[in-house]
Amino acid sequence: MGKWAMLFPGQGSQYAGMGKELYDECETARRVFEEADDTLGYKLSEIVLGTDTQQLTRTEFTQPALLTVGVAAYRIYMERIGGSPDYAAGHSLGEWTALACAEALTFRDALRLVALRGRLMQEAADTGDGAMCAIIGIDARDVEAACILRYAPGAEVVVSNYNSPMQTVISGRAEAVRSTAAELESRGAKTVYLNVGAAFHSPLMISAAEQLEAAVREAAITAPRWPVLSNVTAQPHESPDKIASRLVEQIVSPVRWEATMKYLEQSGVSQAIELGPQTVLTRLSKANTPGIHAYSFEKPSQADELREKLKPVSSVSSGSRSFIAACLTAAAATRNRNWDEQAYREGVIEPYRTIEAIQEQLDTDLRQPEPDEMREAIRSLVQIFETKGVPDGEAKERLHEIIARTGTGGLFPEYAEATASLDRTAAATGR
User: Fold this and answer.
1) Active site residues
2) Fewer CB within 10 Å: C terminus or N terminus of the chain?
3) How far apart are CA 158 and CA 176, in angstroms?
4) What phi and psi values does residue 51 have, to the nearest 5 degrees?
5) pLDDT one-digit tens code per residue, 125-183
6) What Å distances lie between residue 140 and 146, 230, 315, CA to CA?
7) Residue pLDDT, tens place only, 202-217
8) Which CATH number is 3-124+203-316's, of 3.60.10.10, 3.40.366.10, 3.30.70.100, 3.10.20.600?
9) In the chain, how long is the greatest CA-to-CA distance?
10) pTM for the complete prediction?
């Protein structure tokens, strides 16, 4: 059985109303939007779920919006399907989402930094002296050569995105981009200008990178739970310090998406799940790596169909139906309300790794968990809930779902009254 990866889209995938099905149908998603609103100090949820496309397409709102919808999709995926990926990657802004979902930084910290990133990039866009243009149908090396020939101080133009063998994006001073695009068009390329008004992923973003760097350096970044690939290197991040520097460098460097997908393929990845709005990365996967079967998860209604397609993945990881995997899913999907870094490391990361080690042993032995392993997993999960500051009602509901689904109530008499109380409430309210 091959490995699998999670993919997270970047700017350009947004649309008014994205994430609405997640929000309407899933309490977990509503908690994600609520946390975003609380963190940012304004109603991001209204911008995302509303109909004002013009406001949503402003970079300062687009970036935290995509991060929020991506995290919501990830948490619902973990609840309804489950299983830890072998790798994760995100396109530009999507790299931040991938790192947040892998818990290299908290959702709250990611929101704050992405909001700053978006604001700095919007300020660059508001000057109106930059442009970006997709070049389709010509080899990337020819596009590179055309940029090199025209590059000069005051006429900067570079390749900003290596999306696939025959799709690149150029970025730089508006006039230099226009003349380069015209030259490539005369040689048979199709050109599509991006509605951004700025030169993202180019040297013109150096000021934004410098301003972002100080904020990123102050963030508590830890090693991700699974390898997350860098846009700059198309390789897994090496350390927390490197994550910080690469995220800053990313703003002025090209997105090496083709190389990223090739790395995943060469590492044995055979399936990929795009989490978030639309299917841009799913389509690019077909262009870059035909051997990787890519699927999109944007709406709760896709869960059943996707679960069927991913049976080979689920059979290895035991999926959300495994007691231990269900504990991992609950640990990842609950909101964190504790910003003490030391407490988080000891009370969340370490017990999570305890549960993860049990699951890895089960996968190696191809067996079901022993009662002692299940008790250890549930104790670790309770510790995670307590450290994260999960409200009692939500914690009991999570425990109830796991115990009821797996029929293991007899092993956990200490939770019997809590689950029985929830059952009585559900019966009375018709839930």
Assistant:
1) 92, 201
2) C
3) 10
4) -120, 5
5) 888 889 999 999 999 999 999 999 999 999 999 999 999 999 999 999 999 999 999 99
6) 10, 20, 40
7) 999 999 999 999 999 9
8) 3.40.366.10
9) 75
10) 0.80
